Amino acid sequence: MAVGKRIKWEPATLMALVLGLGLWLAFDATTNDRFPLEGDAIVTPIRIGDEKGVVEAFQIPCTSSDGWRFRLWFRNDSRSPPALTTDQAESLLSARVVRQCIEGRRPVYRWLNITSWVGFVWVCVGFAGQLLFSGRMILQWITSERSRRSVISESFWWFSLAGGVTLFAYFIWRQDPVPMLGQAAGIVIYARNIRLLRKHARRTRIAVTAS
Asked: Where are the alpha helices (DSSP H) in 28-176?
């Protein structure tokens, strides 16, 4: 690379800091340590309506019951919830959810907030879409740094289109309408820009041939 065309390190450092902040806010800042849980409790995230919290499953010395107790903790409720028996928890959450709470989800499932390998596949699709989406910005950044001016190549729009379609499918699975709306608009814009670039290139070829 020619002298004076060095890619600056500051933007990459800022990208890493922003990503680190996002991960901290998403995971560490919402830790379960704020709840006074039992030491050996199995904790499962739960959401009922707009309220988020956890289901705490812990064992007590068996008497006439199965020994399992459950408590539902919610972030906006400072009261200590009563301990529920397995039958009571199943009446509130269903037997399947209670079974998952007792068995505990795999660490990767808990981290990704999913419950099955199907969800894991969809999360991989989401990561792939985000990598494509991030790749377009890295490509545009490198191209612009080398040119010392803002440059948007056709590859930028192809990366955007591929990432947008992939993320749109992922958000449909997540049933999240806010990012779905953003990606729906973006997909049309990306495809339109590719179409305009192709039409411009074709007109340029015709003009060159005619001359």
From this structure: 86-93, 95-103, 107-112, 117-147, 154-174
Per run of 10 residues, the mean pLDDT along the chain (length 211 residues) is 57 73 61 67 77 82 71 81 89 84 72 78 92 88 86 90 92 86 88 91 85 71
Residues 127, 108, 67, 75: is their CA dihedral positive or negative?
negative
- Rounded Cα distance between 11 and 88, Å, is 54
Helix (H) or strand (E) holding 203: helix 177-210
Three-class secondary structure of residue 123 per DSSP? helix
205: Cβ–Cβ under 8 A, 6 or more apart, which residues?
A: none
Q: Is the pTM of this model over 0.85?
A: no
Token pair 């990606």 in the structure block, residue? 183
The region that residue 60 occupies, defined by phi over 0 for left and psi between -120 and 50 for alpha, beta otherwise, is beta
Nearest to 7 by CA among 143, 154, 192: 143
CB 36 within 8 A of CB 49: no
CA 30/CA 24 separation, integer angstroms: 9
